[in-house]
Structure of Trichome birefringence-like N-terminal domain-containing protein:
Amino acid sequence: MTGLQSPVGVRSIVTYLVAFFILASSIIFLFDKGHQDHVQMAVDHGRQEVQVKVEAELQEPAMRETTEVEDTSKEECNWSRGQWVYDNVSRPLYSGLKCGFIFPEVACDKYGRKDVMYQHWRWQPYECDLPRFDAIKLLEKLRNKRLVFVGDSVNRNQWVSLVCMVEASIPDDRLKIHIFNGSLISFKALEYNAVIEFYWSPLLVESNSDNPIIHRVDYRIIRADRIEKHASVWRDADIIIFNSYLWWRKQNDGMRMKVMYGSFEDGDARLDEMEMIDGFEIALKKLTEWLGENIDKNKTRIFFAGSSPTHFGASKWGGEDSNKCLNETEPIYKVGYKSADYSLMAKAMSYFETLEPRGINVQILNITELSDYRKDGHPSVFRKQYVPLTKEQIANPASYADCTHWCLPGVPDVWNEFLYGYLMYK
């Protein structure tokens, strides 16, 4: 009896294995097909949700690079490569009208901008999701710490954004204060003893543009060997975010930077004139030297923000240059669009790389590509005008349109999502 049962048992086992294999193959096939259907449904749903008038071939939006996505396996995910997705559920992250710390030059809805689509775009990296911003977690991270933005008005734009993103989580006004002290503006979350500051230093080194209020000068002069006045402010910071591109861009072909060596006090003052990018290198060299000699690499994290693009040349996206960014209400949908100048950012990176052998890592917040698509994100004419407009300007609104700074809520919120992700997870 036992001799007859063995072959039957073997046949049963084989039969079960074959059945299991067929069943598993069917499940995998159905899963793959379902996944494809799900993706197609998600795309179709996204197209319906955005509800913007674009060409059919561009409606699956989204601003996709024509170049191949870089291998990000070593860096987990490249956040800077992705697309803008319209999202009126989770965006905006705060109300510009309710943020008590917003500056009038970026408070677009307060100054008459009626379209609000610019507030509802979310940046979606191709290969992952950005970490969800959590103001309380950030404040815990910043407990007993000091974060300082150092740079120009675009960097101040990012500072205002971060303050608005954070202060909404502190409903009690007694637990948050705002302090102006010359070139230094501070936001303090008292419960956490956390400080988020902005320091006006548009050219990094000392210059004739260091006054945060009166700095519009016909010609710019930097002091090649002087940075300590500025550095003394950020020396003890735990986190520093530098940004200095805007003031180094040539406003016209003949624009040049004046560089002062020595001092009048010592009788060895000398004034040279050079191309703007050469002056930028002098400032970078001095900053890099200071960081290498003074920074505590075990305490301070250093970031350098990418170049923030402007949108004055409307012909680049099919408009009229005379209009600049006036009346733009949607992003650029052109696949692979790129118009920003990366030369200054590349120059900055080359200098910061010299600090790596000393164990000092300056992390670049690469926000240039994603910002390049957002011709709709600027204040244009919807901001406070500190100087009365002339009759000619009133007759031609595009003549005074601000296509440099960014409405809030808006694009700089994503820059701060990048910063948050670095601070919390990288």
Summary: The chain has one domain: 82-425. Residues 82-425 form one domain. The CA atoms of residues 293 and 358 lie 10 Å apart. The first helix runs from residue 2 to 50.
